[in-house]
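FORM 7B - TANDEM STRUCTURE REPORT

SECTION 1: FIRST PROTEIN
SEQUENCE AND TOKENS:
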Amino acid sequence: MSPNHAPRRNTSEFRPRGRRRVSRKRRTRIPPKAIFRMSVLFAVVIVCGLGVTKLLAKLTQQPVVVQAAPSTTESSEAAVVAQTVSLSATDVMPCYSEDALVINYLGVSKGVSTHPLLEELHKTVPTVSASTAPVSMGGSGFSNINYWKTVNSDTKGWLKIPGTNINYPVVQGPYTNYYTEKGMDKNYSKQGVIWADSSCSMNGGSSTLSPNTVIYGHNWTNYGEVPRIGSPSDTHFAQLTAFQHLSFAKSHPYLWFSTGSEEMAWQIFAAFYTDIDFNYISSAGGQWIIDGAKARSEHIYDVPVSSGDKIITLSTCTRRFGPSNRQRFVVMAKLVSNPSSSVAITANPNPIRPNL
């Protein structure tokens, strides 16, 4: 007989007697109704958890004051009523670009200034409104420069903008992004400092300045579609966006930026929103930058400016036109010897908008 046709062995005769075959356990089947109930319960737990999280977030948020949208006329703008809103962490968007104004932050910074004297500077600055903003230039901050050089040898000057709490030393690092997330002590700080582009010349008086002195600062709290005019919670360049409002611009046509060698006043000629494709941060300056700034300006300043003038550029982040990180708010001014003359400023009916 072929091996393939061998008879099957009766294995039962080899099975030990008295031992029963152990059967496999049957799998317990969960009824469909029980599965449905468990799914519903799980969903309820998740929803409740999210609700508690949002409630806690609202309770711990710091409210900030913003202004309602102003109209095109100065009279109605002055009558704007302040509204209180809360900014959540997801409302604050990071900036990434060649000028690296703000890098990778998740929420409104709750830290304090990196030096106690900076805190003292801001205690005396009141919140201002469109109708009560002061006109006086006040002090320039020039006398503070030498002290701050002892705190940080990178200190090059002092920036003060009347009507705001922008009243800071200006530092300059070995490369432009050096101070993006550093304080005056050069340690990590989300608030950062006010810092100058590394390509700018700032070691002497006005005659040695670059054609375009470019200065950056963070804006953590006042970046929205309708920026408010001043709040004690604002730091660094957060109040720069107040220049969007015509009445504020009319009341504050000048600013101070001084180096350790010379006290200098500057006359504002443009306040505008732009995308980063407009290379306004070139320290070489040029008439094309001046013309481009005026064409984009929220207001028309009756201030003649030419490529022979020394200009200053103050740049910060904004989200006025949505979540894009390619938009900026910029104020430009030219060096003047007499900061007391009046300036005619009117609304620009058709400014060039950012190409986002």
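SECTION 2: SECOND PROTEIN
SEQUENCE AND TOKENS:
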Amino acid sequence: MTRITSEPGFYQDLNELQQIKSNPDQRAALEAAAGQFEVSFLQTVLKHMRSASDAMQDEEDRLIKGESLYRDMYDSQLAMSLVKCGGMGLKEQMVNQLAPTLKNAEPVVASDSQTLAAFSQPLNSAKMRKVD
């Protein structure tokens, strides 16, 4: 059986999606998929940042097609490395949000302190109006 890690590897690894789908551990598969989503999101952010900076360059300073291809490959690998080193926290937020929906997930129950905190908020924040 192939071990799946939630840490991304090479940006062109096409077998990783199949490994995520075939993983019987839903939590690990969710973490891997969330990591891949964060990588894709960061790639898009980097791509748009590059295009914004390219728009401000002079026509003669623009990169030739070969250089822009290598820069895109670098940005893709950079996004993978950023997620591997902790990323932006998007992966963790997605896992925290989606983990309770897994089939074998434990039910989420609020602790006593969370419940009491919810009921200790004042209700008079809304203005009272007289209804005619």
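SECTION 3: OBSERVATIONS ON SECOND PROTEIN
DSSP finds five helices and no strands in the chain.
The chain has one domain: 16-119.

SECTION 4: SIGNATURE
Preparer initials: ____
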